[in-house]
Please model this.
Amino acid sequence: MFEKVLIANRGEIALRVHRACQEMGIKTVAVHSTADEHAMHVRLADESVCIGPPQASESYLNIPALISACEITGAEAVHPGYGFLSENARFAEILTEHDITFIGPTAEHIRLMGDKIAAKATVKRLGIPVVPGSEGGVTTDAEALAVAQETGYPVLVKAASGGGGRGMKVAHSAAELPGALSAARTEAKAAFGDDTLYMEKYLSQPRHIEVQVVADAHGHAVHLGERDCSLQRRHQKVLEEAPSPALNDAARAEIGEIVSKAMKGLGYLGVGTIEFLYENGEFFFIEMNTRLQVEHPVTEAITGIDLVREQIRIASGLEMSFTQEDVAFSGHAIECRINAEHPQTFMPSPGLIKEYHTPGGLGVRIDSGAYSGYRIPPYYDSLIGKLIVHGRNRNECLMRLRRSLEEFVVDGVDTTIPLFKELMAEPEFQNGDYHIHWLEQFLEKYS
Ligand code: MV4
Model:
């Protein structure tokens, strides 16, 4: 096992990784920009290294500075958290070249899943159901029209290097298709420097359901059920829950087995998430994420498994600490992302937190680096922290979430807490009756 791990991230996830390391008897090295000198993860870590100025490109994304920090401190492994360098295959390679372990999958798997066309072809071959569409990329209008003829309209044009919804265009008819292609091509080129496109049948009101997998270097691959992440705004998740209100135990076991078998076939290593759209009882693969995700705590809540601990064990060459038979799903969990944003306009609201009081009690978890007197810097994402609530069933979870939101005090900045209080009162949310466009429709009514 590693003696010392460097945490190449900031905020709540840096703290989350630090906690797992501490519990495993591993020393931690925090890295930080000049804007994060007073961050909680820096205070708690065994050592810290300032790696540059506030802009992420000069600090948290600065690979030479991170390698230097490893060499100065003697860290043997790097945990990348999420965002920043977590899905940068080149970073994983450079660490390996310096005999430093990247706590994550291989560079090859990161690169493969970053290419959405290659990812889709690969998982399809491994038996995962995919959205009907083009076999590989589309270039000409004629090719695109032929694909759409097969799938039927509406179709969605997507960027091969995409993600986050950029470079995505819907065409409802043959007349709209050439325009959608050229608009998607322009957007993809600008956003990713790659204008390779592919096409899929457009699903109009699906749910976003993702399956958590864990695989080790000893041939084990296990699924930890799903998370329903349909409640999102502008491709930013707002609330996630597990299990999905839309799935029963048989459907969960079926998709879980398909996914874990595929990951075994791929020789995948570490934790990963297979994203699906789910409509009319059918799963359609869209993407795979090769990182630990923001919403991982809802899976931890219902399984009792520490995903960061498993990542570290697996990266050090150990077996994961459980088998599929050991995994038991218990109750229901919901995560609310508490952002420093105006609850209606979503304008970022950085600044001083004058007063901070978090809820507690049975089934309540807060993952946050915030404290009274903490100043949220304006340079990074607006996540203050995550409220994760667990109950024996969805109703208990909702009641506990409602009272937790009432207890939560964050003074000095705007937060999304009032939005969650409104959401709790909404019958369709209470019934779990929502899809990927539902929240944006709800927000139009509520503003
Ligand atoms: C889709 C889709 C409908 N049909 N693919 C958006 C981000 C990207 N990762 C995949 N996305 C979508 N792909 C087909 N064939 C609708 C979306 C989509 C979406 C997906 C998940 C969560 C929120 C979403 C919001 C808008 C569109």
